[in-house]
Design brief:
The complex is a heterodimer of chains A (about 190) and B (about 575).
Chain A: E1 2-10, H1 15-25, E2 30-37, E3 43-51, H2 56-64, E4 68-73, E5 79-89, H3 96-106, E6 109-113, E7 118-124, H4 126-136, E8 141-146, E9 150-153, H5 175-191
Antiparallel strand pairs in A: 1-3, 1-4, 2-3, 5-7, 5-8, 5-9, 6-7
Chain B: E1 12-13, H1 14-24, E2 29-32, H2 39-45, E3 53-56, H3 60-74, E4 78-82, H4 86-89, H5 92-100, E5 105-111, H6 127-130, E6 137-141, H7 147-159, E7 165-171, H8 172-176, E8 178-179, H9 200-212, E9 216-220, H10 222-226, H11 230-240, E10 244-246, E11 261-263, H12 271-279, E12 282-286, H13 292-295, E13 306-311, E14 325-328, H14 331-341, H15 348-361, H16 364-368, H17 378-391, E15 395-399, H18 403-411, E16 420-421, H19 432-442, E17 447-453, H20 454-460, H21 463-469, E18 475-481, H22 486-495, H23 510-516, E19 520-524, H24 530-539, E20 544-549
Helix pairs in contact in B: 1-2, 1-7, 3-5, 3-19, 9-14, 11-14, 12-15, 17-18, 17-24
The chains are: A alpha+beta (about 190), B alpha/beta (about 575).
């Protein structure tokens, strides 16, 4: 399944290289990656989407990197995920009204147009963008650029926060539970 | 604030700041080789020669391993230096070795001028890029003003949390630039906060598990030694009557002559140690990372045990072996906290059961029994060495990698931490001689025994020249010479129909080689000569190389074949 990870890291040369290197080392293919600066000067935020069932280990190894301040796996959290997409279609000709209608339907914008081409921009959930592109298909897509997913959790991660599964019951009987116990412990200490 | 003021009398060159920073970090020695891009640093080093000892090695790999040996013997940060390009790339192996074994190390390298970065300039390699996967952290410094902060951070990172190598790559112009150094730099490490104290709820859970265990077992690893937790380990083991196995890097963390000591588990561990792991109901792994050489086939490891894993690195917990309780923290503090929560316990029947397995399956004496031959057996060498080590003064043993390394681990009695210095995770042949150079400087009043095979010895023995130039005399080198890359040959014998492909190995006369370096060389071909040779080595106030020409095709047993469960051991030579 797809996991969406958000990492906050120091905005310095080489940091992205280190982070991405971890995925490469483990043989993970990155489905999408988006990085940009944040509300805090000197820190940037990275959203990574990987298609793996278990990302616990890579999250912990990311956390181990000195330049990475926090890592969240927001896959199961209440989080918003959005993506931006630019799509260029050929000469609209007589189908202009149809294209504009589709754009309105999906809340897409015409960002440039000429007699020979038209560029539409859309920002939405990745699945909606895919649905939009399918509909645009019949107007003749010349080129697509997707930004990769950016995501934001509805909660602030504690500094140095660990990946936190959703279950809240802690018992000593399974590995997953003990991780939970640990994660709880971190959260307690951070709050204190 | 730091000002770029070349004419101010308070200004210093970047190179001078590097030297001053090393002094401020308490560095007493570094190992290296100069070259174009690091020359400004060597120029400044001259002014600091009464405070900073520089040891000129013969190859950068030697410098790196020497820094490792120094760090492992002393517990302090080892420092090595090289120039850009090939000088730096020759350090890749020791850096990878230090990363695998969590050895605290700072690596200083020169880099081409910042205006040349990325232009394929002479002796330019992207060293911080090359070392990303094998360093704890790295810096490329192009501004001399950053040097005080970078050095402070680098030494802090190398020596805190899970120790490891940190690279500082400094461009030549940054070494030459003059700035006014700020010696109160703020560290900028918002993402780095190693935790020393374990989480109290997990510690309480672990204490409950151990208290209620019927067949408990402690597995002590490198972390016990790194954190100085051997005393805390002894206290916990004795309080709870829990037997202890010690991994390769844990040897010395728990005294082998203790009634609760079981010795080494794993691929070449003792049968009873592995059986104890397979039968225990609670396993406390403190400061070990469940290396595959310890666990064998991981899915069959410790099948009856609930596992407590204590490690300073959160990413180690649950990495390979599912745990019931994971405790992130410093081994000593966590063990002390656990001990306070646990009532006294005894497990005499369990320990007696393990001792019975030991007597039945692998009596150590039987393993050392010589077959019907007058030839010198490897075990004669280790027997003689073991007797000498414990009869004489303090010692360290530095090994290379291969059969001799496993015999060293098995057949010598380990009683004190930091007495065994070996390449574990990376398994780097060529480690021993240069690492002994570093250990000899860290422990000048002790006898440093090198145990090395004829293969590994021929990889880095040029560092004997360094040892001699430095006037170091407390190194004695035992070459266990069987004319093969012995461990590979053993696998070929056991698993590849004796196809000795690429393993027969010739060499020079090692005694004469030693003499060529101005050291003493001895050759031993019979068991009866072993003790005399060792006595001579002790009596000679200089480097001594003993060429032990042992029976060529002797195997290390017991052995867990790769990919098998540690419950399935080959305990003795299979019938031909």
């Amino acid at each position: 399944m797809q996991h969406t990870l958000i990492a906050v890291m120091q905005d310095r040369p080489g940091v992205l290289n280190r982070a991405v290197s971890l995925f490469r080392r483990r043989g993970f293919n990155i489905d999408s990656l988006a990085v940009a600066s944040t509300e805090v000067p000197g820190l940037s935020r990275m959203t990574v989407v990987v298609n793996r069932d278990d990302v616990t280990q890579v999250v912990q190894q990311l956390q181990r990197l000195v330049d990475i301040v926090s890592v969240q796996d927001v896959t199961f959290d209440r989080a918003v995920a959005q993506e931006m997409c630019l799509v260029r279609v050929g000469p609209p000709g007589s189908r202009l009204a149809e294209i504009l209608g589709l754009a309105r339907e999906f809340d897409a914008r015409v960002v440039d147009a000429s007699p020979s081409a038209m560029v539409l921009a859309i920002m939405d959930a990745p699945a909606t963008i895919s649905a939009f592109l399918e509909r645009v298909q019949r107007f003749g897509i010349e080129e697509i650029t997707r930004s990769g997913r950016i995501a934001m959790s509805m909660t602030t991660p504690a500094r140095g926060a660990r990946p936190s599964p959703n279950a809240s019951a802690a018992s000593a009987s399974t590995a997953a539970d003990s991780f939970q116990a640990q994660a709880d412990g971190f959260a307690d200490e951070e709050a204190a | 604030m730091t000002q770029h003021s070349p004419h101010d009398p308070a200004s210093r060159t970047g190179a001078q700041i590097m030297c001053e920073a090393l002094v401020r970090e308490g560095v007493e020695v570094m190992f290296g080789i100069p070259g174009g891009a690091i020359m400004p640093f060597y120029h400044a080093m001259w002014e600091y020669r009464d405070r900073l000892r520089h040891v000129l090695c013969r190859h950068e790999q030697g410098a790196g391993h020497a820094a490792e040996g120094y760090a492992r013997a002393s517990g302090r940060v080892g420092v090595c230096v090289a120039t850009s390009g090939p000088g730096a790339t020759n350090l890749v192996t020791p850096i990878a070795d230090a990363f695998m074994d969590s050895t605290p190390m700072v690596i200083l390298t020169g880099q081409v001028g910042s205006h040349l970065l990325g232009t394929d300039a002479f002796q330019e390699t992207d060293f911080t890029g090359i070392t990303i996967p094998i360093t704890k952290h790295s810096y490329l410094v192009t501004d001399a003003a950053e040097l005080p902060r970078v050095f402070r951070e680098a030494f802090y990172l190398a020596s805190s949390g899970r120790r490891g190598p940190v690279v500082i790559d400094v461009t030549k112009d940054a070494q030459q630039a003059r700035v006014i150094p700020d010696w109160e730099p703020e560290m900028e490490l918002p993402g780095y906060a190693p935790r020393a104290d374990g989480e109290s709820r997990s510690i309480a859970q672990a204490a409950r598990l151990l208290t209620n265990a019927q067949r408990p077992l402690i597995m002590a690893g490198n972390g016990v030694i790194m954190s100085g937790a051997h005393g805390a380990l002894l206290a916990l083991a004795e309080r709870t009557g829990t037997p202890v196995v010690t991994t390769l890097h844990g040897l010395g963390a728990f005294p082998d002559d203790h009634p609760l000591a079981l010795g080494m588990p794993g691929m070449h561990g003792w049968v009873h140690a592995n059986r104890a792991i397979q039968e225990c109901d609670v396993l406390v792994n403190v400061g070990g990372r469940f290396d595959d050489r310890v666990t064998g086939k991981a899915s069959t490891f410790a099948p009856r045990a609930r596992v407590i894993h204590i490690d300073i690195d959160p990413s180690e917990i649950g990495k390979l072996i599912p745990v019931t309780v994971g405790i992130v923290g410093d081994a000593r503090r966590v063990l002390e906290a656990m001990t306070r929560l646990i009532p006294e316990r005894r497990h005499d029947a369990w320990v007696a059961h393990i001792r019975e397995m030991q007597a039945t399956h692998q009596p150590r004496q039987a393993y050392m029994r010589r077959p019907d031959t007058s030839a010198l057996m490897p075990h004669d060498v280790f027997d003689g060495l073991n007797a000498a080590l414990h009869a004489r003064g303090p010692y360290r043993v530095v090994t290379d990698v291969g059969q001799h390394q496993m015999w060293t681990a098995q057949l010598l009695d380990w009683r004190r931490p930091r007495t065994l210095i070996t390449s574990g995770g990376a398994g780097t042949m060529g480690f021993a001689v240069p690492a002994a150079l570093g250990a000899a400087i860290a422990a000048p009043d002790e006898t440093i025994w090198v145990v090395v095979g004829d293969g590994g010895f021929q990889m880095t023995n040029q560092e004997i020249a360094t040892i001699r130039q430095e006037g170091i005399t407390n190194i004695k080198i035992a070459v266990v010479n069987n004319g093969y890359l012995g461990m590979v040959r053993q696998w070929q014998e056991l698993f590849e129909q004796r196809r000795y492909s690429g393993t027969p190995l010739s060499g020079p006369d090692f005694a004469k080689l030693a003499e060529a370096y101005g050291a003493m060389g001895l050759t031993v071909t019979h068991a009866g000569q072993v003790d005399d040779a060792i006595d001579t080595a002790y009596a000679t106030p200089d480097v001594v190389v003993i060429d032990f020409r042992v029976e060529r095709e002797v195997n290390v047993f017991p052995m867990v074949p790769q990919g098998k469960s540690i419950g399935e051991m080959i305990t003795d030579q299979p019938a031909a």
